[in-house]
Amino acid sequence: MAFTAVRPSAMGCPGGLHFKRENGKLTMCAISSVVVNARSLTKRYGNLEAVRGIDFAISSGECYGFLGVNGAGKTSTMKMIYCRINRTSGELTVLGMDTARHASRIKQRLGVVAQENALDPELDVVQNLLLYASFFGIAGAAARRKASELLELVNISGKERALVRELSGGMKRRLVIARALVNDPDILVLDEPTTGLDPQARLLVWDRLTRLREAGLTVLITTHYMEEAARLCNRVAVIDGGKILAEGSPSALIAQFAARDVLEIVDADGRLPADGLLGGLVVRRERHGDIQYLYNSDNRVLLHRLAELGFEPPRHVARQATLEDVFLNFTGRELSE
Amino acid sequence: MNALGALFAPNAWRVFRRNLQAWQKYAWSSVAINIVEPFAYFLALGFGLGAYFSLTGYGSLVQFMAPGFLGLTALNAATFDAAWGCYERRVFNGVYESMVTAPVDPLEIAAGEYLWQAFRSALYGSLFLAVIAGFGLVHSWWALLCPIMLALSGIVFAIPALYVSFVVKTQEHLFYYFSFVATPMVMIGGVFFPLDKFPHWALAIAWLTPLYHAVKVFRSLVLGTVSWNTGLEVLWVLAAIAVLAFVPVRSIRKQLAN
Fold first, then answer.
1. Chain A residue closest to B94 (CA)?
2. Contact residues, chain B, for A116 at CB < 8 Å
3. Among A59-63, A333-337, B55-59, B134-138, which stretch is predicted with the lowest mean pLDDT?
4. CATH of A255-331, one of 1.10.3470, 3.90.550, 3.30.70, 3.40.50
5. Count of domains in chain B?
6. Which residue of B has its CA nearest to A121?
7. Any residues with CB less than 8 A from the CB of A182 and at least 6 apart, and which?
């Protein structure tokens, strides 16, 4: 079975091999090194500025997520990383190489799951994998072995001779992930890997991505599902309007930008006491329609205080703050499109 | 990577093999479509219309048209798939889109398509050659070289068709190319009738089209009238390939390169 052990290539040694001593043992390549580095990166299409000067550095072994709505600039950023489009200005290196000058060498070491599946509908499942493998110089028995290994990994074994159009949406997506892994990439780049999948299919994709991550593969992902980012990523960049608005671990973002808890109260007649009466318990308050969102550090304390003030919320949801709150805090609860 | 060198790149042959694998799934219908239609025209015109007259200095109409139809078959086979098929592979099916996420140069994709059209032209043309041989219309062993000339014709017809497929806004616009370029080329290509009664200006236009030269070569090979002039016609086609190959480069790169 592939990817059960940490492969040296997956540990990411773009600058060659590194050694360091850890508890008296010599460990190969344990230094975390930057594998994707962007400085003031921009992308313009005519008058439209899709990416407006973003900076980020992704280290080997990370799972880094771009979280944003449609049109936020996620896909443009990803396409620049996997050398499909060129940047307008700024700097971008992948595995230490400039994307504008070394596209072919970078592609050799990337696995790409683009937003559109782009599976070949005229070929069957195995032919799709073998064709793609051939472009990396992998052919013959080695390619066939790799294909069956990957089909097993993504749970499509037994469908080798099926045409792509006979596969379900979830299977197609998993096949694209398998295809992206034929060259044992150093970095796996996924643009909205689970958009449009049903919950079960999504869980399966998440499970496989988690396995790959645990095997040490560097993973870049875009998503507009907060849950996905929180589950898979160790670092998340909230991106909107072509800019990175916030960056950090999911829990740090939650701690930094929203309080720990959120109390959602249906307050149609505006009887909810003002913040001043709540003794500083509410960090931030938002109102959308009839619903008030009270960001606070402890829902139980807040509810207790409200009861003291004689306000029994008719309908309410007491929950923990999520990445979604962080995200919506930045981008607003209204749809931007 | 340059447009001609790409023809010899391993990736071009991988693209070729991809098309071959896809084609194998509908090979029989494709063969039928590419053979039956020209054959029907050939029978109707050659034996139906041709029964009423013969061409002064050229013999029967059916004998005149037989080698011309080799050129026509190559033109049809290469033009349609390089235009319509490539448009589909690029725009609708994402075939090229996935190739360029791998380390494949867009020019290698184009080269693979040219090789593929060379194969289609050689295959369908050779089947047609077998048919006219069956009618006793092939008079020379030189005809065994027809597949090579069919392949070259396939490439020279594929290049402009692929170019058009990369620049049109919608697939329907490809019909402009079929109607305004490909069909007139057939009419003045010396497929159906000799061109010696054409005015000079019309002949000059004909001379500029690859089909005119390809048909001359097929006629020489089938009738056994091969001369140094035949070699010059082949050279014309090779030169056309060498020049035309560079025309679509910018458009191909614009669509598929970073």
1. A118
2. 94, 97
3. A333-337
4. 3.30.70
5. 1
6. B93
7. A111, A129, A132, A133, A136, A138, A143, A146, A147, A150
Question: pLDDT tens-digit profile of A106-137?
Answer: 999 999 999 998 999 999 999 999 999 999 99
CA-based nearest residue in chain A for residue B90: A118
State pTM to two decimals: 0.88
Q: Which of A105, A117, A131 lies at the smallest CB-CB distance from B18? A: A131
Count Cα atoms within 13 angstroms, Cβ side, for A2. Answer: 22
Show which residues on chain A lie within 8 Å of chain B, measured between beta carbons. Answer: 82-86, 99-100, 103-105, 107-108, 110, 112, 114, 116-123, 127, 131-132, 134-136, 179, 183
Looking at every residue in chain B, the average pLDDT score rounds to 95
**With an 8 Å Cβ cutoff, are B22 and A117 in contact?**
no
Residue in B14, B18, B103 closest to A107 by CB: B103
Q: What pLDDT score does A333 carry?
A: 57
pLDDT digit string, tens, across residues A134-192: 999 999 999 999 999 999 999 998 999 999 999 999 999 999 999 999 999 999 999 99
For residue B98, give the H/E element and its range: helix B95-99
Per-residue pLDDT of A293-328, as tens digits, reads 888 888 999 899 888 888 887 788 998 888 778 777
In this complex, the residue of B14, B18, B258 whose CB is nearest that of residue A85 is B258
Please tell me which of the candidates A108, A123, A179 has its beta carbon nearest to residue B103. Answer: A108
Q: List the beta bridge partners of residue A65.
A: A221, A236
Higher local confidence (pLDDT), A130 or A4: A130
Q: How far is CA B161 from the centre of its chain?
A: 10
Contact criterion met (CB < 8 Å) for B258 and A83: yes
User: What number is the ipTM of this complex?
Assistant: 0.93
Least confident span in A271-285, B69-83, B152-166: A271-285
- Whether the pLDDT of residue A14 is over 60: the answer is no
Q: Per-residue DSSP letters for B189-233?
A: TTSSS-STTS-HHHHHHHHTSHHHHHHHHHHHHHHT---HHHHHH
Domain that holds residue B173: 5-256
**Tokens representing A53?**
């000067």
What is the tens place of the pLDDT at every residue in B37-49? 889 999 999 999 9
From A241-245, B32-36, B216-220, the region with the lowest mean pLDDT: B32-36
Taking the CA of residue A160 and the nearest CA in chain B, the distance in Å comes to 15
| Residue whose structure tokens are 């439209």 | A48
CA distance A156 to A172: 9
- Which of A134, A161, A181, A189 should one mutate to test binding to chain B, selecting the residue with the greatest count of B CBs within 10 A? A134
Q: Tell me which of A309 and B219 has the higher pLDDT.
A: B219
- Residue of chain A whose alpha carbon sits nearest to that of B89: A120
| Residue A43 three-state SS | strand
Contact B82, B43 (CB under 8 A): no
The runs of H, that is alpha helices, within chain A are 8-11, 74-81, 103-108, 125-134, 140-153, 169-180, 199-214, 226-232, 250-257, 299-308, 323-331
Residue B103 to residue A84, Cβ atoms within 8 A: no
